[in-house]
User: Fold this.
Amino acid sequence: MLSLPVFSSLAMGEKPASAPKRFIFLAHGWGGTEGEFLPSLTKPGALEALPANLAPLERHRESLTFVQNTRHKHSHEAHWGSTFWLTGADQYAIPGRNFHNSISADQIIAGFLGSDTRFGSVQIGCANPEPSGHGPGLSLAWNSAGKPVSGVNSPYALYQKLFGVEDRPLEEQKKQFEKKQSVLDALAVDAKELSGQLGETDRDKLQEYVSSVQDIETSLSKELEWIDVPKPRPEGVRVPPKSLGAQVGKEIRGEHNWALNEFTSKGTEGEEEIRLTYQMIIAAMKVDSSRVFTYRQPVEGMLKDFGGGITGHNMSHLASEERREMSRLRDRKQAELLAELIDQLKAWKEPDGSTLFDNTTLVFGSNIQTRHNLTNCPTLVTGGGSHIRPGQNFVSQEKDTPLCNVWLTLMQGAGLDVKEHGDSTGIIGDLLMS
Assistant:
């Protein structure tokens, strides 16, 4: 049996329940083209025009809000990419360590919105990540212990996670989970016995290990809770044949009907990878598989689409007109794909008569403005989920306002009881509709 989305026409005269809140965080590495990506800082207020590079978003201009003059006060190294984008943590907060992180905004949100869905949150990377030491970093999502939350790194893996069918009998699956759980229990006992024999530094390492085991236990218990519930799939989605490789290829588009086809071992990169991932995020929200998504986008793959033979890092330095033109092409393509995603959010009706767009907070941003510039982090917010004032070029009067103030504002705007986050100093009240 396949579950389908809830339809308002089947409500039998009952008043539909209010649609749930949803969040999507989209990180584009390497910022935007300097002087061509963000609206002018000297023209705050109503968003009367978009920068030329974002022209594909013009049809949604009145729904967009740019937030400017923000940054993370602890961010000093551009090459760490998006590692701290959603956390605002101080990398050197713990003496004697060269790395520390804290919980990310999406995981705080998942604590409120994820309990009733199969997946508390979904973390998506890309099939062709940026070179080590540069770019968007390992993960956007970090747990309460400051450890990266695992995710998937290809459209095919995302498809299998969200909509794939498990071939093994149910009892066999349950036994496998119980076996994993028993191994984790044994490890926990061993760790407890070992703790008293270690020095302070090693005890810290052990605690990190125990924390990671606890995260696995939590994931296992949730999977076991949902193991006998069929994964819902939107109408028209078929299961990819196992024999056709481990990456997804092209998609067949339709208004409410999409399928996957032409699987190859190479897979899809760049534009098609992003477009297909967006479609699966929408599909997952339609059937309420998850309400919180993070997506670290494949900038390198997109540049390969353009045929320039240049890396994202080198492009971002804008050291030549060729590099600047590549950056412009990247901006425009991302804007085009984002406009398509907003189209889909606005098109899907919820049972209560609202749309996905009305109930979703969508963030498109980066930890870096351009080159190595970590000030004025590019931040674009849209959707009605957090009651942000639309059609605005909001320029904070306080230079270097904590970016975490934006995350806190979005969380409180969505009705979540969160008092602080990262290096936040409070919400930005002027962003919210009265």
